[in-house]
Design brief:
Elements: E1 5-8, E2 15-18, E3 23-26, E4 34-38, E5 41-45, H1 47-51, H2 55-62, E6 73-75, H3 82-94, E7 98-101, H4 105-115, H5 126-137, H6 141-150, H7 155-160, H8 163-177, E8 197-200, E9 203-206, H9 214-217, H10 222-234, H11 239-253, H12 275-288, H13 298-310, H14 315-327, H15 334-337, H16 352-382, H17 396-412, H18 420-428, H19 439-451, H20 457-464, H21 474-481, H22 488-525, H23 541-577, H24 581-588, E10 592-595, E11 620-623
Parallel strand pairs: 3-5, 4-6
Antiparallel strand pairs: 1-7, 2-3, 4-5, 8-9, 10-11
Helix pairs in contact: 3-4, 4-5, 6-8, 8-10, 11-12, 13-14, 14-16, 17-19, 21-22, 22-23
């Protein structure tokens, strides 16, 4: 899309520039009668064309009318836009051709306000032309963005004339209305094309319909960018899109977040070079982030937190980030929360206190959610006469956080400077119901014991109270029973509960077996109704166990029948073929032994009559 442009005047250019004297002159044939200083540039002009268009110039020139011999020299060093803009104004006063575009429109409009070039000093004066042209500029995304960027050099007057607010409202409206009219949006350039290819950190990506304006807006300086974000919030833009733009802006201007620093792109980013400027930027970004949960990934929030620690941001900024992370701690990973301690007076290797505060925020949010869920469950029970809804709550977020904390404790437990109180406080924050298995807690405690061999027995017993012996797996229980670092009392408890668990399992199997036998007996004496349907007496897990025992007994019975059949076939083979048992066993690689009474001699004490008895043949054959 071509840039908006307005052409004024009809005369050919009569202005020329003298490089040596840094001055502009007019070759109209008449000698100059007024000299105007704008910055370090001089303009040798004529009074009448100027005072006929500007009230300010008329008043200044009038001060010299009493003394005709005195040369008229006007100083306009504070003119908005400087010498370049005044040259355009001079051309307009002389009727010379000039071109106005979206880049110089705002400074030119501010300069005309400074010089009071209203309709009282000639119809079709420059203020009227500029206002009409700005209306055309605001119709285009590209032109509006350029006009807003040009407001930087004349920001005070631009804000007084409401040019800044008009530019920002125009951009915010276009960013919000895009979703409402997807296919009616003009597409002719990268700026106006939401599907154009852009390059970020050397990787080509295609901008989507949601973030097409992120890169354009990220070129604004922080004060204007803040006003734009506030304008989009007032227009009810989706919080995810606002957060996405803030993240994009932070990655582009904070070297610690993005892989590349963009400060080399020109003076536009020079204000973010120093650590103090980056600190102000980061604090502003965090303040603008929407308060809604999960609009910003937890991983990125933790990166912002780590960067804010490096830049020594305010406690308010740090607390804001910790609160946001605590709201969605269940989405964090162990690598994210292992934040190195960068304090000079810190003892521990990692930010233990920071993680503790984040966990406290999560517990507060979880407790508030529990209260609302309980209220909803009570309401559901009142309206659920059949009891179909239930009131069981999901333990998934809390369980995920419990696993995260256990892994975190295992990572930081090897720090010899980690105090017992901090380790215990962090572990005890998680409620008991959140840990279905205490293997992770046992691993962390064991690592802590290994790294702190000087702990007293009372301290070891205090940490062991964080674990429940009944929630240890078989592998963990086996390891604990042989762990010399654990207190003796805890080891005895582990052995006791393992024995109790084994006895319970055996008793359960016997109960199921007895229950199966009794059910079989009852079923044989039950009368089947006329409908032919048999009602089951037991249901659920007991039925499954009974079926499992029934299957096992059936398989054992089949194996016994197969063994008996094989023995009968072997007996026939021995009788018909005359093969000896020893050769047969050697052929099949079996070790057999004869199970019979030992041969008795005449001296045996069992032969009371002193007579020898014939030794009976082997009664049966048993495999070794």
């Amino acid at each position: 899309m071509a840039m908006a442009c307005m052409k004024l005047g009809s005369k050919s250019d009569v202005f020329h520039f003298n490089q040596d004297s840094k001055s502009w002159g007019c070759s109209s044939g008449l000698p100059s009668d007024v000299t105007i200083e704008v910055g370090d540039v001089l303009f040798y002009l004529h009074k009448f064309p100027l005072l006929s268009r500007s009230k300010t110039l008329e008043n200044l020139i009038g001060e010299y009318s009493d003394d005709e011999k005195q040369s008229c020299v006007l100083k306009l060093h504070d003119l908005p836009g400087g010498p370049k803009i005044f040259l355009l104004i001079a051309k307009f006063c002389y009727g010379v051709k000039l071109e106005v575009n979206s880049t110089n429109a705002v400074p030119l409009r501010c300069a005309t306000e400074y010089l009071k070039m209203t309709e009282e000093y000639g119809a079709g004066n420059l203020i009227n032309h500029m206002e009409n042209f700005l209306g055309e500029v605001f119709d285009s995304w590209v032109d509006t963005l350029k006009a807003l960027e040009s407001c930087e050099e004349v920001i005070e007057i631009a804000e007084e004339l409401h040019i800044v607010s008009r530019c920002i409202n125009s951009l915010a409206s276009k960013a919000c209305e895009y979703d409402k009219d997807l296919f009616g949006w003009p597409v002719s350039s990268r700026k106006d094309n939401p599907f154009a290819t852009v390059i970020w950190n050397g990787i080509q990506t295609t901008s989507t319909s949601q973030d097409w304006w992120y890169e354009d807006i990220s070129e604004l300086r922080l004060p204007l960018y803040r006003q734009f974000i506030l304008a989009t919030e007032s227009k009810n833009m989706d919080h995810e899109r606002i957060a996405g733009s803030l993240v994009f802006y932070a990655k582009k201007h904070l070297p610690l977040l993005g892989r590349e620093s963009n400060v080399s792109n020109g003076n536009l980013y020079s204000s973010f070079d120093s650590n103090s400027d980056q600190k102000i930027l980061l604090e502003e970004i965090v303040d603008l982030l929407p308060n809604q949960k999960k609009v910003v990934p937890t991983k990125l929030l933790l990166r912002l937190l780590r960067t804010s620690m490096i830049l020594h941001c305010s406690p308010l900024c740090l607390g804001n980030l910790e609160r946001r992370i605590g709201m969605q701690l269940d989405q964090a990973s162990i690598e994210d929360i292992l934040i190195p301690n960068i304090g000079y007076t810190s003892e521990t290797l990692y930010e233990i206190d920071c993680v503790q505060r984040i966990l406290d925020h999560f517990m507060i949010v979880d407790r508030d959610q529990d209260g609302s869920e309980i209220a909803e469950s009570v309401f559901s029970e009142d309206n659920d006469e059949d009891g179909l809804i239930g009131n069981s709550r999901s333990l998934t977020p809390m369980t995920m956080v419990a696993n995260l904390v256990d892994n975190y404790l295992a990572e930081v437990a090897s720090d010899v400077n980690l105090k017992l109180e901090k380790f215990q406080c962090l572990a005890a924050t998680i409620p008991d119901y959140a840990r279905p298995i205490d293997d992770g807690m046992y691993r962390a405690v064991d690592i802590y014991f290994k790294a702190h061999p000087w702990l007293t027995d009372s301290d070891r017993e205090l940490l062991c109270r964080l674990m429940d012996c009944q929630k240890l797996s078989l592998e963990a229980s086996t390891h604990a029973a042989q762990n010399e670092r654990l207190p003796l009392r805890f080891i005895v408890q582990v052995l006791f509960f393992e024995q109790l668990r084994l006895r319970t399992s055996v008793a359960g199997c016997l109960y199921v077996s007895d229950n199966y036998n009794s059910q079989t007996h009852l079923s044989s004496s039950m009368v089947v109704p006329e409908s032919g349907n048999m009602h089951l007496i037991t249901t659920g897990q007991s039925d499954r166990r009974i079926v499992a025992v029934d299957d096992m007994r059936g398989r054992v019975s089949e194996l016994e029948k197969e063994c008996q059949t094989m023995k009968q076939e072997i007996d026939k083979l021995v009788k018909t073929k005359g093969v000896s048992w020893n050769n047969l066993c050697k052929r099949f690689g079996l070790g057999l032994r004869l199970k019979s009474k030992p041969r008795e001699t005449c001296a045996s004490s069992n032969n009371r009559g002193g007579k020898s008895e014939k030794v009976p043949p082997p009664s049966r054959i048993e495999e070794v």
